[in-house]
Amino acid sequence: MAHGDVTPHPVDTSTLKPLGKDWIEPNPYRGNDKAVAVGAEGYLHNCAACHGLNAVSGGVAPDLLALNRDCLAFPSGPKREDCLKDVDDYFKDVTLNGRKNSEGRIIMPAYGSVFTQEAVWAIKSYIDARSVQEQDKQK
Ligand code: HEC
């Protein structure tokens, strides 16, 4: 599959509450509809080429919905929240730093120089919302 244009594109987060310079965890936008919509756009322009349209992996890159799956298996409460916070942290790290393969070749671009914290958390909010949708479908 051709990856197309995988240059990181900034995400317009001007409609969202600014979060400031220091990183906030867990994802402060989780469940915020506006952030989910902004994140969906950001995802489409930056991630979908590899991770799949609507965050449904076509096998080129890992399924991002799988990241939250174990957390969502906990009933809502502190256990689930702690689990999601760990996933947030991992998601943020990979997104900012990208990934290289064992030969040092870039297989996922780093978004750290282009994404604000608002952009990272908006995209994670989109993934979170999609994860809940997929889980509800299983019921
Ligand atoms: C050029 C293709 C490409 C693009 C674009 C891309 N990724 Fe990735 N991503 C990958 C690959 C390949 C891996 C697996 C890397 C590995 O095996 O170490 C990965 C891994 C990840 C992981 C870790 C998944 C896991 O199961 O451990 C996260 C999180 C992630 N990407 C988020 C994103 C986000 C968010 C975006 C958009 C802002 C994005 N990626 C854009 C190719 C891409």
CATH superfamily: Cytochrome c-like domain
Q: What's the CATH class label?
A: Mainly Alpha
Bound molecules: heme C
Instruction: Give helix % range.
Output: 40-55%
Number of domains: 1
SSE pattern, N- to C-terminal: HHHHEEH
Tally of strands: 2
Tally of DSSP helical segments: 5
Q: Can you tell me the overall shape? A: globular
**Neighbour order of strands in the largest sheet:** 1-2
Q: DSSP strand (E) fraction?
A: under 5%
Please outline the helices and strands.
Blueprint: H1 33-46, H2 48-51, H3 66-72, H4 78-97, E1 99-100, E2 106-108, H5 117-138
Antiparallel strand pairs: 1-2
The protein binds heme C.
Residues 3, 6, 46-47, 49-51, 61-62, 64, 67, 91, 94-95, 99, 107-109, 111, 123 line the site of heme C (HEC).
Summarize the structure.
The protein has helices at 33-46, 48-51, 66-72, 78-97, 117-138; strands at residues 99-100, 106-108. With 139 residues, it is mainly α.
Question: How would you explain this protein's 3D organization?
Answer:
The chain has 139 residues and is mainly alpha-helical. It has one domain: Cytochrome Bc1 Complex, Chain D, domain 2, CATH 1.10.760. The chain is 48% helix and 4% strand. The chain has five helices and two strands; from the N terminus they run H-H-H-H-E-E-H. The protein has helices at 33-46, 48-51, 66-72, 78-97, 117-138, and strands at residues 99-100, 106-108. It has a two-stranded antiparallel ribbon with strand order 1-2. A hairpin with a 5-residue loop joins strand 1 and strand 2 (106-108). Helix 3 (66-72) runs antiparallel to helix 4 (78-97) and helix 3 packs across helix 5. The longest helix has 22 residues, at 117-138. The chain is globular, with a radius of gyration of 15 Å. The N and C termini lie far apart (33 Å). The relative contact order is 0.23. The model has no long low-confidence stretch (mean pLDDT 94). The structure holds heme C. Heme C (HEC) binds at residues 3, 6, 46-47, 49-51, 61-62, 64, 67, 91, 94-95, 99, 107-109, 111, 123.
